[in-house]
Amino acid sequence: MITITGLFTHPIKSCAAQAHPQGVEVSVAGLAHDREWVVVDQQGVFMTQRRWPRMSLIRPLVQDGQITVQAPGMEPLSWSLDAPVGDNVAVSVRIWSSDTLGRDEGDQVAQWFSDFLQTPCRVLRNHSRARRYVLTERVRPWEEKSQGWRQIGDQLNGFGFADALPFLFTNEASLEELNRLVLQSGEQAVPMDRFRANVVFTGLPAYEEDYVLGVSSEGLSFAFVRQCTRCPMPNVNQRTAEVGTQPGLALAQSRQFPQGTLFGMQAMLVESQSQRLTIGQTLDVEYSF
């Protein structure tokens, strides 16, 4: 059994997290408003902290029918979640190997982000006509080992601007073990926000999530489809935007696999009646062996 200790959304892809201490709505597309917006450059390519670490300093807050962004040295900017008249104008966006649609949030929003990031950019919101699905090749290995535990239907796979799957789960014990190596290197321990998870939990030994097929609780089931492959982005301090060498070096030392450096589990919602996750909620664990 695991216990949820943290719930986070990242409303604007690669910007700061919004915590949900009172719980958050959940659907097959992810936690409510998670990665619902994306920043793109002049070529329409999505921007991330990998190249623009200052994105970590942009703090979005979705609340009371609007989204507000704040950043050091900038006046806060708010705009409505209600779709404007131009909602039917769709902009093509490629997120890694999959294509989807966005809706431009307008010149005022674009100027705010361009001023802070010091580069021309636009902000797109996931379009109402977008139909982005988890790629079949990502799901097939999980289905082969699931032995009928849960079924993944094509209708369950739609989501927004997240990299590959709609949910990311991380284990506090795994971070503690990773930080043991970070501390041995003479660096300070890193917080969980470096890994930009949606659901943080306790209840499993370090890295035992690697062997979990999924978790469930009274009509709510998540498939742990695959381990999350890590780029250098966890090296970005989410509070200062400074880029260091940890936890990347510790990950390379301890979590290097043929598919890459791994930390956390990417997941899909495969069964839901509850529609909400809360801090302290427990979920039963189904192992893959």
From TrEMBL:
Q: Name one GO molecular function term.
A: molybdenum ion binding
The record places domain MOSC at 133-286
Among PROSITE patterns, the record links this protein to: MOSC
Instruction: Report any Pfam family annotated for this entry.
Output: MOSC_N
Q: What is this protein called?
A: MOSC domain-containing protein
Please name the source species. Alcaligenes aquatilis
UniProt lineage: Bacteria, Pseudomonadati, Pseudomonadota, Betaproteobacteria, Burkholderiales
